[in-house]
């Protein structure tokens, strides 16, 4: 058993003892946790774990380990796997990535990822849900068929499901990597409404260009992506949310003009939410000059004015939550140059430090608000209740002596309550330097290597188990 003495509860400031019955992440015993913060675990509704199909970049194992070491307890896996996670039975065993799925006795990628732990005999350190494609093959020609994947949703014939199916349901729809194409948008919205799920939109479309259009793209001699490539999709989808009432969640919003449109639509009461990612609040397109393709992503890093607008949108509540868009690629792939290198960077293992440095140290939001943006809000979007430490303390300690130190004993929870526990131990004041070589991810594609940041996740707890720790005695 591990006991963390005198840890501070993130929202009330109460000092408590926390006992954790299981976990090999650190030796049993008592630890002085004075000054550390106990928060609900971070949740990321936007990660790419490249499994199946591109496990040389990342796998479910390395991706989940990266998440746990970043303080995350819950993630939503995007469907641009190879083959794509569209719910269709894999017909061609020779198609890229199909063999892994078929050899495991699964008939599609959803089935494979739901049973990943039993197939590979591993115990993954974070909880995950799955996102199904909006279009078959994620190529934008034809909407996926609800009848082919409805059974993977929560509440659909749950009595006949095994524990893996129950643990990893399909909870959202997206063609992330691309915006839903105009020709299938109405079909996708009808399907989304019928399913009762929500649509996650990669709200960006451009036919040409590799980096933000402006002085930097001209200096580099690389074709630019105009700023309204995002706004066009945002405006189109706001109109659709108004027309259909379907909840649309905008991913990785990056421009001032999009935030303005979203701000207005929210004031109207439309069912939309949005996220941005650490890189859009920490970097602008000038980073391309310093970091090269390690700063290439889609949507591209925008202007400094857009970066400032992103921070303002976080501060005023237009941004609902922070997601990383954790996108692993090899450094060889990233060396291909601005035109050819794949888009995206990894984010799970330094997101909290980078966001804390820019947003909290920068005086834009409080420590508490950052935790809401990284755990409470994304958990709710994903359909889960964030762990309420104070409610658990009340339950276990009753009306004890006023002022007496209370203990949260995870070992005393009933099975159902324990199953919902997700906690992170944070040192909100720790200054540290990002070293990608220490990452648990297989990938190293980040521009944040060498950055001096503050705020560090120290331990991650799922259920009654300590799954990750860097706490020193
Ligand atoms: Zn995207
Ligand atoms: Zn993405």
Query: Cα-atom Rg, whole angstroms?
Result: 22 Å
**Percentage of residues in DSSP E strands:** 15-25%
Q: Which structural class do the helices and strands define?
A: alpha/beta
Q: Mean of the pLDDT scores?
A: 97
**Quick one: biggest sheet?**
8 strands, mixed
- Ions, cofactors, ligands: which are bound? zinc ion
Let me know the number of strands.
Answer: 18
- Estimate the global geometry from the Cα principal axes: globular
The CATH topology label is: TIM Barrel
Question: Any idea of the CATH class?
Answer: Alpha Beta
Distance between the termini: 14 Å
Outline the low-pLDDT stretches. Answer: none
> What is the number of helical segments per DSSP (H or I, 4+ residues)?
18
* CATH architectural name: Alpha-Beta Barrel
Number of domains: 1
* Helix content bin: 25-40%
CATH 4th-level superfamily: Metal-dependent hydrolases
